[in-house]
Design goal:
Largest sheet: 7 strands, mixed
Strand content: 5-15%
Distance between the termini: 72 Å
Structural class: alpha/beta
Length: 591
């Protein structure tokens, strides 16, 4: 492992040696100056201490001589002794004041008892006693005694200061010796430091080259990853459009054939065709969504919808499979299902569709039960509960923890199972995307139970849409694929509306400028002018369709929010007749 170390030189081995020598010389000069300064400071302090002690001793001795002379005068009084006594008192007070000033500057003088008691008393001597007062002699002797005690204290302190000074000098000399040895050692290591500097310089240069190479490789790898992601997104969009668009034509044609009664009810061939197209649509949807999940590009588009209608549509999509396998499918609606809920209906539909598909796939006898309910937590919010039970083969305990893994299938224990192994993996990812919870339990030979809880916002109940009014409301179908456009127009006509067709974005804008429509089915992937741009121009223009219900048709599952905000509803290709009926009824009610 290499650690990048930056050195302040670029001179190679000679630069390293020069740096080491310069550092050694600089340290030597600094240490020498440091030692010399400390020695000079110690000598200066010792000289000042000696001068202070000599000055104190001189003033103490002069004060003592003055007191002795004063005592002699008082012991043998004369007629003219008063003037001499006054003079001696003045001499004593002068020396006492200087002595008090010098001792007061010493450290700890205020806290020393002898200084604190003696100096004020000496300064106050002789008090109220005059030259001829008999009490002056005893007070003089008392002052002499105080001065003697003060002298002993001063000499004791002077001795302590001299000892401390000597200790400091010894310490300084010892430190000087130690630092001198260190300097010798430092010079001895200079050669080793220079050698190490050479090696360090070479290592630093090599590390810098490796870091630059790694940085360039990381940048190139990031650019390749971004390019791969763009290519993948482009390929997914093309794959979705190229596969789901023709599938839309097939499903719409089947809806028309069925609505016109051209096939007998329960015709096995038609049921297998219907089931095959539904399975193909589900597989393509799972593959595209799984790829988007892997790339972290799966989006959520919350809208208001009715849960009961969504469940009925999902059950209807699986009716052919249930009839073919002679199974029963039931669903038990919870209370307040007419209440509108707000979340992503396409994701909820995809979750429920995968769970029901999985239940039908692994059930050979009995049936499937679907339960849906809205559990209100507080005003304006709650959670949606979806439960799917089956009486199928069940799942072994050791496999239950893996059923949500991508491409995992219980096919080894169930040979009749088909599929890509992505259905339950997509369910788990979608539940996590919607911040919900998922629970699975199963008993081998008795069936399985899956429960999904999703947080939702609640709204006022939605009224059941009434049939379209008489007069065949006009609907504009916009799609660049002729077969898809014609099939959608036939489905719209069969639902009781008057369709008009437009094969491009500009053709759609011309038709929307000429007359008003009850609804517009607008494909996003138009070659000349994208459907989102057509919707924006219609909304921001002043034409007759500014407030018309716009339904987005797209084979891409991920649509930017800036594009989707121009539409009132969305239907992902391939669109079944039941989905178109719901969207068109909502458009008629809104118009």
């Amino acid at each position: 492992m290499h650690f990048p170390i930056r050195l302040p030189f670029r001179g190679g081995p000679f630069g390293a040696a020069l740096l080491a020598g310069a550092l050694a010389l600089g340290l030597s000069v600094s240490m020498s100056r440091y030692l010399n300064r400390d020695l000079l400071d110690e000598f200066s302090d010792a000289s000042q201490l000696l001068q202070r002690q000599q000055a104190v001793a001189a003033d103490h001795e002069a004060a003592a001589v003055a007191l002795i002379d004063l005592a002699r005068l008082l012991a043998s009084p004369r007629a003219d002794a008063d003037q001499e006594v006054a003079r001696q008192l003045a001499v004593f007070h002068g020396h006492a004041e200087r002595l008090a000033a010098q001792l007061g500057q010493r450290a700890g003088a205020a806290s020393t008892p002898v200084y604190a008691d003696t100096l004020p008393a000496l300064q106050a001597f002789p008090g109220a006693a005059g030259p001829s007062d008999p009490a002056l002699l005893p007070r003089t002797l008392e002052a002499a005694d105080r001065l003697a005690r003060l002298g002993r204290a001063v000499r004791s302190q002077d001795e302590a200061e001299r000892l401390a000074q000597q200790a400091a000098m010894i310490h300084l000399r010892t430190r000087t010796v130690v630092l001198s040895h260190l300097m010798c050692l430092m010079f001895s290591l200079t050669a080793a430091v220079a050698t190490f500097g050479v090696l360090l310089a070479r290592r630093e240069a090599r590390t810098r080259r490796e870091a630059d190479d790694a940085r360039r490789a990381a940048v190139a790898s990031g650019e390749q990853a971004q390019a791969a992601s763009r290519d993948k997104s482009k390929f997914l969009g093309m794959l979705t459009h190229e596969l789901l668009t023709p599938l839309q034509s097939i499903i719409s044609s089947m809806d028309i054939i069925e609505s016109k009664g051209r096939v007998e009810a329960g015709e096995p061939l038609f049921l297998r065709l219907r089931e095959g197209t539904r399975a193909l649509r589900a597989r393509l949807s799972d593959l595209v969504d799984f790829a988007k999940m892997s790339a972290g590009r799966l989006a959520v588009n919350p809208r208001k919808f009715r849960l009961d209608r969504l469940v009925e549509e999902v059950i209807a999509d699986h009716e052919e499979s249930v009839v073919r396998k002679d199974l029963d499918i039931h669903w038990t609606p919870g209370p307040d299902l007419r209440q509108a809920v707000v979340t992503d209906p396409r994701r909820v539909r995809q979750i429920l569709d995968n769970l029901v598909s999985n239940a039908v796939k692994y059930t050979e006898r009995g049936g499937v039960t679907v339960h849906a309910a809205v559990e209100a937590a507080e005003a304006g919010s709650g959670r949606l509960c979806l439960e799917v039970r089956d009486t199928g083969v069940g799942i072994a305990p050791e496999a239950l923890s893996h059923i949500f893994d991508p491409f995992y299938r219980v096919a080894a224990a169930t040979p009749m199972a088909e599929g890509s192994g992505l259905g339950l993996a997509v369910v788990r990812s979608l539940v996590e995307l919607l911040h919900g919870q998922l629970h699975a339990e199963s008993t081998p030979g008795a069936g399985s139970r899956f429960v999904v809880w999703l947080p939702i916002a609640t709204a006022a109940p939605l009224e059941i849409a009434s049939p379209p009014p008489l007069g065949l409301p006009p609907v504009l179908v916009v799609d660049d694929a002729h077969d898809v456009r014609a099939a959608l127009a036939d489905v719209v006509r069969g639902l009781g509306y008057a369709p008009s067709e437009a094969g491009s974005g500009f053709e759609a804008l011309r038709a929307l400028a000429e007359r008003r429509f009850a609804a517009v089915l607008l494909d996003l992937d138009l070659p000349d002018l994208p459907g989102g741009e057509v919707a924006r121009r219609v909304r921001q223009g002043d034409g007759p369709n500014r407030a018309t219900h716009l339904v987005m048709l797209s084979a891409s599952h991920a649509v930017d929010a800036d594009v989707e905000r121009w539409f009132d509803a969305r239907a992902d290709k391939p669109v079944a007749a039941a989905q178109l009926q719901v969207a068109l009824q909502a458009a008629v009610l809104a118009s």
